[in-house]
Design brief:
homodimer, alpha+beta, Tumour Suppressor Smad4, 3 domains, 6-stranded antiparallel sheet, 10 helices, globular, NADP (chains A, B), NADK (chains A, B), NAD/diacylglycerol_kinase_sf (chains A, B), NAD+ kinase activity (chains A, B), NAD(+) kinase (chains A, B)
């Protein structure tokens, strides 16, 4: 690790800090005679969740997403404690001070000095030809990546008799966002075939005849059709579609949509050139406009509405993007993709290729229960 | 294909059109007693380029990028003919009318009714620990993706004795852009290890112990340090870094940086609220500002300058992005990435992991020679 320039001492220290923080939480709970099961990431499952009255994640925001991913009960509280405040923002966790004084948090819970917060989550329906409604269960089978791809293909060809499958409700709920886009990892630019579906088949079945060096293209535009709130279908080509919750509006969605001070300044300069601004174009004005604009991208995790944004839309003769983003209650997407996925909270993915149709919406039954401590 | 909803009839028709267009070009050349070698993508190599006085690509912009990728001679003209005008924008090709009247283009060339155009290209130097300065040559070996990964690892461990390698000039020249970012395809979110380098090693060596379903995370922020024009090093976290040429300023870079009419409208509304605009905020003003702003992102392919842009910069306590984009003569990047690549023109990639340092610049010796016909 040192040879690679990695900071082994730093790694060890962060592990020590995390371990100490976890012990603090467990001790605080047991001191109150609360029964605690401490499970690591790989042992965490729905049976454990059923056993518990409440779930506490000890880690960063990623651990909180993982904790939430196995909770489907609207009345099972999930609480995050940030055990790595140096590295994680902890948006989804309790304020950082409780990491070292967890008994204080427990006292507030006992005294009712908190309120319940329901973070709305997104559900997904999948239908259409050749869909694969569950990730292949590799946990038990431990397939290699190549075997994994073949498993997907075998499953798909077996299912071809049931060409049209009715909408399947996927066994996931997105706490941050659903992202739809080309996987990119197995794009083949080498088979020069106009119809990507053909190349996809050729590529997978004749793996060896493609120059794998062309496979690592990072940027392949995603091609799909989108209908917002049951509106007209629109063909789009972009770097992907992000549909987030209020919780997720602070996450990846924010980074996709925020505008830099530098860009706002240039835009206002051009506006001034065309007609002038009443006030001088100074840093203060640019900062105010930048802050207001970027803040308008955020909304409450408890609002049962989604925010969709199209990432880097490609606008030309064929493709248009009437609205690059906006609020909605329902988003439907028809894949025309080659090798795409729907990725939930950056951690679980589903194939989403040509022929698949996804319906994306919020059902308040899927909300995640957490707490907001009084300050 | 029909079962998947793919348009087989359309595929066949586009192939027919392309084939007819290629025949037209070849016939036009042979009618002038010009010796023509017609090669398919897989047969195209540097020997063929050496044989030729000029290279004509028949396809879309992607084919032109491929044609240019084997030409390193500043005085070997490369001309693109768009044989698929329905599907390709043809930015890098001759105007579409010459596709069906190629003799007209030839006549202009004979009569000198054209000028030479030199499209500047980017060169890359790579140095640092554990670098792999060439893509593993899979063309001959036809390795599977898993074997490819292992080959990269074996090579890297063998090279550890030469820990610091002097700058290697990579055997590629970017006509559009160099993109640096996480590969994403083999990220492992499952090994909860704070130091990504450790997980990368564990992941590759203990492949089976990771749940591959977590591997398909599409979004992993790229972490690196950047120095522009020998300026101070800045740590950044983002969705990747794009460094383009004037040619590439119309390509992916444009899609990364352009601002939508919808966003300009909202920004101007906020500016108006803070101080007002002299002119009414109407569609016409918004359109003018939008057009001016987006046009400012484009520049001439012949200008020997690069344009860098940081895609979705993450701004927090640790990371900053003083300038999200700008012109430069030189960009240096130090990778702190887990499993990243440098991707040239969307087609060729180089590993770019923790310890590697890239220097990116334009040398006018690397320019690509093409023609601009008089209209």
């Amino acid at each position: 690790l040192a040879l690679k320039g990695s900071n082994y001492a730093g790694l060890l220290e962060r592990h020590r800090i995390h371990t100490k923080n976890v012990e603090h939480i467990v001790d605080s709970l047991r001191n109150e005679k609360i029964e605690v099961r401490l499970v690591k990431r790989r042992e965490y499952n729905e049976e454990t969740v059923r056993w518990a009255d409440a779930v506490i994640s000890a880690g960063g925001d990623g651990t909180m997403l993982l904790a939430a991913s196995k909770v489907f009960d609207k009345f099972k509280p999930v609480i995050g404690v940030n055990t790595d405040p140096e590295r994680s923002e902890g948006h989804l966790c309790l304020p950082v001070r409780y990491t070292h004084s967890f008994p204080e948090a427990l006292q507030k819970l006992y005294r009712g000095e908190f309120r319940w917060q329901w973070r709305q989550r997104i559900r997904l329906y999948l239908e259409g030809t050749g869909i694969n409604p569950t990730p292949v269960d590799l946990h038990e089978q431990q397939l290699s990546q190549e075997q994994h791809s073949r498993a997907h293909i075998n499953e798909r060809f077996q299912d071809q008799r049931s060409d049209i499958s009715g909408p399947h409700l996927l066994p996931v709920r997105a706490l941050n966002e659903v992202f739809i886009g080309e996987s990119l990892s197995s794009s083949c630019l080498n088979c020069y075939v106009p119809d990507k579906a053909v190349c996809s088949v050729l590529f997978r079945e004749n793996f060896k005849s493609c120059k794998p060096s062309f496979k690592f293209s990072l940027h392949r535009a995603s091609y799909y059709e989108i209908s917002v709130d049951d509106g007209p279908w629109e063909k789009q080509k972009s770097s992907g579609l992000n549909v987030c919750t209020g919780t997720g509006s602070k996450a990846w969605s924010y980074n996709i949509n925020k505008v830099a001070h530098q860009a706002i300044e240039e835009i206002l300069k051009i506006a001034k050139k065309h007609g002038g601004l009443n006030v001088p174009l100074n840093t203060e004005l640019v900062q105010k406009v930048t802050n207001d604009y970027n803040e308008s991208l955020l909304y409450s995790p408890e609002e049962p509405k989604m925010f969709f944004s199209v990432r880097e839309p490609i606008v030309n003769r064929v493709f248009s993007s009437s609205r690059q983003r906006g609020f909605s209650s329902k988003v439907c997407v028809r894949s025309r993709c080659w090798d795409a996925c729907m990725v939930v909270d950056g951690g679980t993915s589903f194939e989403f290729n040509d022929g698949a149709i996804a319906s994306i919406l919020i059902d308040t039954e899927d909300a995640l229960c957490t707490v907001l401590l009084e300050e």
